[in-house]
């Protein structure tokens, strides 16, 4: 009783002690009998993840731990560790956040939000459904990170506008939570095209080189677009109808308010037009990046460089307004960056550093060997094990690296069981994109977590439920439908 009382009264201290206890247990006892170097990396990973999950310290603070612990335990040098904090994805986030700040600064976000709600109506469920469909559709063709970056400031502004017209605090909390989570999960669940998520590209390249499978863009769409549609439907149903229902219903008073607010905004100001133009140019570069790269050799566009180009333009482009007669205000000044979610940039850098250490310690190979030892003749059981392992492993691993390492492992397992390699490889690949529990699981998760509308416990709870739903749907699809479809659509060279 005294222990329980202490834990309740000292939650953060208890979480700190619990994490340290786990760390020492894995480090000194080595319950998995791993090689010394691998055991040390796993111990640090257990410590960081436990503190993240339990909220022992602010998330960005925990993300800085590799800078201290990795050199201390000879896992990696400081120079090596710091590279993760300057990964290209971090700068993609930074550029996207700059765009979001500029959109908010010049009130463009409010105009966009009012316009969206004027079309969808003021019903909370319809607004969320519209965002899910739009985000998932865009993510089929764009990087899921870039898609989330585009939708994030718009969703924030919709929350602000809806909140100004609703007094029900619980409904607004549920609405804002679900809208933010939906952006990330709808981006992650866009599995219907090869370019929809990075793991798809990695696996198609592997299976083509290794086994000669010719999987075309259209072939993949025909097979996996139905799964994407079903996943998206369950995403809406689980979040909106089951876990976090909101009572925000359509009302004529609210519609009148929206229209009157739109009228008050009047015509777009010069700064709004310039920010909108830069945002549009950035989006078009993301959309046509591959076409541009394929048709010229002078330069190569990447998502991160496009985002930073858009951000730099905001600091260069004059707003058309003057502070004094001689001083012209640019669209964005450095003082505006006080609103930047710097902590999320550190959080994702720490997540990348942790993922890289897990890869370098060969923990994925060790895990693959353990997985292979579990191989049985029961095809359904093997599909379940591989899918579940892939989904939950991607919460702490780079999903692309995960697929690159696991693809040969599951292919060998399939060969030993006289199965088509796609029977295990496809569910492993699809599962790698469905991490929903932790901010560092995927870049979209980290982006939406930067808002103040999601608490860690909400993401873990909703993410765990959606992980289970994803596993069930992927297993059912791959076991019952995929073998039939593959015979008619996928062909050997």
Commentary on this structure:
- The radius of gyration is 24 Å and the shape is globular.
- The protein has 24 helices and four strands.
- The chain starts with a helix and ends with a strand.
- Among the domains are: 7-57, no CATH class; 88-196 and 217-339, no CATH class.
- The chain has helices at 2-9, 11-29, 36-54, 59-63, 66-72, 78-84, 88-105, 108-120, 124-139, 144-163, 169-188, 198-211, 217-243, 252-265, 270-287, 289-294, 303-316, 342-360, 363-373, 379-393, 399-416, 422-431, 443-449, 456-489, and strands spanning 213-214, 318-322, 328-330, 491-492.
- The longest helix has 34 residues, at 456-489.
- Helix 6 crosses helix 18, helix 7 (88-105) packs antiparallel against helix 18 and helix 12 packs parallel to helix 21.
- Strands 1-4 form a two-stranded antiparallel ribbon. The protein has a two-stranded antiparallel ribbon with strand order 2-3.
- The model has no long low-confidence stretch (mean pLDDT 83).
- The relative contact order is 0.13.
- The protein has 493 residues and is mainly alpha-helical.
Question: How would the blueprint of this fold be written?
Answer:
Blueprint: H1 2-9, H2 11-29, H3 36-54, H4 59-63, H5 66-72, H6 78-84, H7 88-105, H8 108-120, H9 124-139, H10 144-163, H11 169-188, H12 198-211, E1 213-214, H13 217-243, H14 252-265, H15 270-287, H16 289-294, H17 303-316, E2 318-322, E3 328-330, H18 342-360, H19 363-373, H20 379-393, H21 399-416, H22 422-431, H23 443-449, H24 456-489, E4 491-492
Helix pairs in contact: 1-2, 2-3, 6-18, 7-10, 7-17, 7-18, 8-10, 8-14, 9-10, 9-11, 10-11, 10-23, 11-13, 11-23, 12-21, 12-22, 13-24, 15-17, 19-21, 20-22, 20-24, 21-22, 22-24
